[in-house]
Amino acid sequence: MGKILFFLVFILPVFFELFAQGKETGTDREAIKQYMNNKDTIPDFRQTKNIELVKNVLKRYNSAVEALNVTGTERFFTADSRICESGSSEGNYSHYLEHHLTPELKELKSFSFSDYKVEVQIDGNYAFTIETYNYAIILAKDNSEVRGKGATTSVLKKVKGQWMIMIYHNSSRK
User: How far apart (Å, rounded) are the C-alpha atoms in residues 126 and 77?
Assistant: First the structure.
């Protein structure tokens, strides 16, 4: 009787534990362990959402420029934004809008982007972007067309849950 009791109390539980561990091999437990060891290489869906939100801000701004109507685009920029265009510092967006962009758009019949590409990197509450594109402009005074290539680099900051352009630099060549 003592041998049976010893077997039931000490040997049988060890056997069951060994058997149970063997059954876990190749299951979700192993996959979870691998995930935890490699979590830096797995896409962060919050990051993906932020990238899409940043792209949306840039798209909405570019759409306003294409529509030749930049009314209300101040909402895409921080109050202390810095704008540079083709080697010139234009000040903050309000200044750029009033003294450069709005008067320039009044001289155009149309503005369009093509072959647009954007790269976005997120680091905390900051996003760093590079946009490349071709553009076509038709001047209102004589319907002449200007074509060129452009690039824009921007730094966006997340302010109260919204991505806003903080630094914006574009340049172009014909």
Answer: 13
